[in-house]
Design a protein that fits this description.
The structure holds 2 protein chains of 2 kinds. By secondary structure, chain A is an all-alpha fold. Chain A has 10 helices and 2 strands. In chain A, strands 1-2 form a two-stranded antiparallel ribbon. In chain A, α8 packs across α9. Chain B folds into 2 domains: about 130 residues, D-Maltodextrin-Binding Protein, domain 2; about 130 residues, Periplasmic binding protein-like II (D-Maltodextrin-Binding Protein, domain 2). In chain B, the strands form 2 sheets. In chain B, strands 1, 2, 3, 4, 6, 7, 8, 9, 12 and 13 form a 10-stranded mixed beta sheet that branches. Classes of the chains: A mainly alpha, B alpha/beta.
Chain lengths: ~280, ~270
């Protein structure tokens, strides 16, 4: 048993070092060639040795932000309804449904997006095809909603009933119970769920690639969610097969991956270090 | 005991794929995929023990896979770049198995509205963003949905070379970028105002090929015109054959070039090379 634990710890340790190490090593030629300036340049033409990352960075950010703005309030609200209001059998049903949703492969979400969401968006907003950051954000929000709801539900469910009873006995009304007792108690769990969701929104490739349009151009104006755009992941997904191993293009794509890793880690640390509700 | 058990499973996992039936891994252009897939189906009827594993990904992927040795046979619908050629030189040869015309594919509604033929400069103007509405070309009053393809795709190289003068030319007029023929075909079929580049085998009732005006004569992307070279956006579809390939691979290639193989080429919608 000890041996097994030791071996798995060793493997995990090697992986934890090897993945970031590989990304840094593989992207080093790109950073040497383009420098940090690539972060705010906006032209991406690998064949002409131009590697501006800004459109994809902005695309990843906007898609993730859209997804979380919908999924975080929606997910927490769903968890509250499920734990605080629904009777026990229904609660179990909700949890099963959530688990099923969380297990659906991302390509299925992407195809659903193509069949249902894109035509709808094209119709509502008068777009050419519906491929847009909004489509990516909406699909992503659907994909992370189960994660947020399930984890928040667990966090809320772990609060002892005595606390609710005490709060009600003290004369707190429902909004006070919610804001003073339930949410602060459950916040660490909810925070974890948001972090997991953030990781998935930043890292999701397949579903995003199918609906985002993959157009490497800055949206006009920059916050326009209704235009086709590119995210860091969709670019990697589209181009990695074409990029020869060891070429500058390949290295630039690894640079995109490094950015995703560093960006995700930074946001995670930032949220972790805040103790209480913002 | 437990350790031994895991070790045994580990070794079975490693050895099994090697010890199984003979197999050919074929990777590359999604333009060649339907042809080779049909050929593989037919070929396996007479060689039931042979495993043929097919996957797409684009011409660049095919070339890279042969270079890395992760494929026994590559498919490419474009000529290798100078860089790729230098690497391929000592490792593999190109073998043309069919001709294909790259159609300027438009939505059915555009054709029905009267835009049936365009000249190469007109198409170039669309992709450069100088013409943005079908009305400017005698079509419906609708914005042109200009579809570009991923930079490494063979179809894109051939199209951009013929229309824009350079396989890597920028297309600032493009509104969206797609990957496989399948993906692009679906978008054109669903739209009323799209233009894109598709291998002519992918044309359907809803996705129609424009004729190209050459010296005032409209030339359709029909098989005859592609074969005799009058249709200007044409290419050879190549297999990338590693020099040290196995006899099994050699037999499959011979089949593709044989009578029945070339008949399949025609059946799938391309033009036989022999």
């Amino acid at each position: 048993m000890r041996v097994w634990l030791g071996v798995s710890l060793l493997i995990f340790g090697i992986l934890a070092l090897a993945v970031p190490g590989f990304l840094l090593w593989a992207s080093a030629p790109f950073w040497r060639f383009a420098g940090v300036a690539a972060l705010w340049q906006s032209e991406w033409f690998p064949h002409e040795q131009r590697f501006g990352l800004l459109p994809a960075i902005l695309g990843s950010f906007l898609a993730a932000a859209t997804a979380l703005m919908i999924a975080v309030p929606g997910g927490i609200a769903a968890a509250l309804v499920s734990t605080e209001m629904l009777p026990r059998p229904l609660r179990r049903f909700v949890r099963t449904v959530l688990e099923v949703f969380a297990a659906i492969p991302s390509v299925v979400y992407g195809l659903l997006g193509i069949w249902l969401l894109l035509p709808a968006l094209a119709g509502w907003f008068g777009l050419l095809t519906g491929h847009s950051l909004l489509a990516a954000g909406l699909i992503l929000s659907l994909m992370v909603l189960p994660t947020i709801t399930a984890l928040s539900e667990a966090a809320l469910g772990a609060i002892p009933n005595e606390q609710r009873e005490t709060a009600l006995a003290l004369g707190l009304d429902w909004p006070q119970l919610l804001c003073r007792v339930l949410l602060p108690q459950a916040w660490p769990g909810i925070r974890s769920s948001i972090l997991l969701a953030l990781g998935r929104t930043l890292g999701e490739t397949m579903a995003v690639m199918l609906v985002v349009g993959s157009l490497d151009r800055l949206p006009q104006p920059w916050w326009n969610l209704l235009q086709p755009a590119q995210t860091l992941t969709s670019r990697i997904g589209r181009e990695i097969g074409e990029a020869a191993w060891g070429s500058l293009h390949f290295s630039a794509l690894m640079g995109c991956a490094t950015l995703l890793g560093v960006g995700g880690a930074m946001i995670a640390v930032f949220i972790r270090t805040r103790r209480n509700l913002p | 005991m437990i350790k031994l058990f895991f070790l045994a499973i580990f070794w079975i996992g490693i050895v099994l794929p090697v010890a199984g039936n003979e197999s050919i891994r074929i990777v590359g252009s999604s333009t060649l995929l339907p042809l080779v897939s049909e050929a593989a189906k037919l070929y396996r009827q007479s060689h039931p023990d042979l495993e043929i594993l097919l996957s797409g990904g684009g011409s660049g992927v095919g070339i890279a896979a042969v270079l890395q040795g992760s494929a026994d046979l590559g498919m490419t619908s474009r000529q290798p770049t100078a860089e790729e050629q230098a690497q391929l030189e000592t490792k593999a040869k190109l073998l043309p198995i069919a001709y294909d015309g790259v159609a300027v594919a438009v939505s059915e509604a555009v054709i029905n509205h009267g835009v049936k033929a365009l000249s190469l400069p007109q198409i170039a103007a669309i992709y450069r963003g100088q013409i943005r509405n079908w009305k400017q070309l005698g079509g419906p009053d609708a914005r042109i949905l200009v579809i570009d393809k991923e930079a490494g795709r063979g179809t894109r190289h051939v199209f951009a070379n013929a229309v824009l003068g350079n396989p890597h030319a920028r297309a600032p007029g493009a509104v969206i970028v797609t990957g496989s023929n399948n993906e692009e075909q679906a978008i054109i079929a669903r739209s009323d105002q799209a233009i894109g580049m598709l291998s002519h085998a992918w044309l359907t009732d809803r996705v129609r090929g424009l004729a190209i005006l050459v010296n005032g004569v409209a030339i359709t992307p029909a098989a005859e015109n592609i074969r005799n070279g009058r249709y200007p956006i044409r290419r050879k579809l190549n297999l990338i054959v590693p020099i040290d390939h196995s006899p099994v691979v050699g037999d499959f290639i011979a089949f593709l070039l044989s009578g029945p193989g070339q008949a399949l080429v025609e059946q799938v919608g391309y033009i036989p090379i022999r």
